[in-house]
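Purpose: get a first structural picture of the assembly so the mutagenesis plan has something to point at.
Setup: two entries, given in the order below. No constraints added.
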Amino acid sequence: MTASEPEEPGSASSRAKDHSPWNWLLFVPIVVPLIPVFFNADAPRVFGFPRFYWLQLAYILLGVATTTLVYQLTKKRGDR
Amino acid sequence: MWRDHLTEIIVFTVLFLLVSAMGFVAARWRAPRDMAHLDEWGLGGRSFGGWITWFLVGGDLYTAYTFVAVPALVFGAGAMGFFAVPYTIVIYPMVFLVLCRLWSVSHRHGFVTPADFVRSRFDSPVLALVVAVTGIVATMPYIALQLVGIEAVLKTMGVTGESALARHLPIIIAFAILAAYTYQSGLRAPALIAFVKDTLIYVVILVAVLWLPQKLGGWGSIFDAAEAKFQATAQNPNDGILLNANNQLQYVTLAFGSALALFLYPHSITGVLASRNRDVIKRNMSALPAYSLVLGLIALLGYMAIAAGVKPLPGSTPGSADANTVVPVLFDQQFPDWFAGVAYAAIGIGALVPAAIMSIAAANLFTRNIYKEYLKRDASPAQEANVSKITSLVVKVGAVACIVFLDPQFSIDLQLIGGVIILQTLPAVALGLYTRWFHRGALIAGWAAGMGLGMWMLYQIPNPATKRAHFGGSAFPLSDFGFDTKKTIYVGIVAVLVNLLVAALVTLVLRAAKVDAGRDGTTPDDYFADEGDPRVTPGPARDADAAPEPVA
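Result (structure tokens, whole complex):
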């Protein structure tokens, strides 16, 4: 490590921010939307939408919820 | 002819001119101390906050061509066209952490392009050149396709002519205006215009999905009408409102492969690097899927067009149909004239935002990785900004020439190829952010192998619907590899896997032969730096030239 003195404290905590077990949660919205067995069917229909369409649109919420959760759980506390 | 569409044309023109005026004013928006710096012109001062980044990146990724081509695909093939939804869902969790690392290392070292990073990380100007040229080649047809989006709208409004020049004149004028304000305002122009574009898109789509289903008998009957149409047309076995056993693999690999490719495109990275800090990026990864919802609903406009009995307008060759006109024709039939005009303006302006960002990104690549590297090593920041501005003009003239002088189908083919070739920069750019295990020579070898295989596979794919023998799509039949199956797979995934395999093998060989791997210009600490770090200073205060040298 060749970084100069004053950077050390900031970078140490930012490293802690990047490496978190919560990050593994991000794999859920990457893997689940890519499994056709879950969504490739007509029934049940919701508001006239076949499952293929409403479930895949619902996965958007899964993605938003997961990234938001991981962001909140891994956010640096205290500063800014 | 066009007189029937007078209201639409007036609304379209007024909104278009309003936005153009904004583009010129943008130079003074969040005015920099010194515009003659590539960071200012090409990255908006690296200072955009959460909202601006959301509009900018959203306006950048979800382009006019997407808005026209995705429903056209759903109209023609059904469920397969819906791949855009899983594609834009998996992308954000996938790049959530990767982009933060890219942002940090780029801000510490003043990188403007992905090739800048590769050059410093692998100590290889050649590899950087390969990444830069790949980026430019993949971006050019994408810009040209934005014109296809505008043209679909103009055609529906009856603004066409007999001669090639008359037909293309409106587009040439539109792009001349775009080129002028991009030249003047740089990335600030699309950032400001994106507000108008996205607001219009959201309004149009909300109205469309709330109002049209009522007119067409509800969502249930829209899907039923689509299913009935796909059942009736037997010539394509792979259409339908659900996937079948043979195209599921294609659907999944296409969604995943496209997601891998998206943030390798230089224009996506430009939007990300323009943000103020890592938090802005992370919050945007949660907020950008709002556009995916819009995209999903836009895709379903394809089914509404089926239910409404839309017939696409004739294409450039006699007997063919231009599927891209499906959505504009649907709006023309179902909406009052003034609102159809608003919808057309949304698509037309929607083309300008990405076209501006793409031309800026391509210009930055040329300036940083070709001009500065090979033509004028001691270029000052002001000279860099100047070269970029001029290159952005050249790029746009090239895009217009592609559409005017060549068959638009050629641009569509090139864009298909573009998605496959940009994926070949994945090992160097995306994996490079995490590991330096790969040898620079091996990355070049892997790139060459992936490019070669990808091009060959695309060349082999025919398209029975348009009676073309080559470049008919991205679905490669596994039977061509000797497998006894009717399944197809996305070309890009196969090509990038081979790329990785070759890169790994050649790395082992080069290491065994003790070939020099060069010096890493970055430190592990660089990948975690954030706003406020002593060496991360936004804007002109930083000396971008001295940056590539690591601290002693």
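Chain B has one domain: 47-515.
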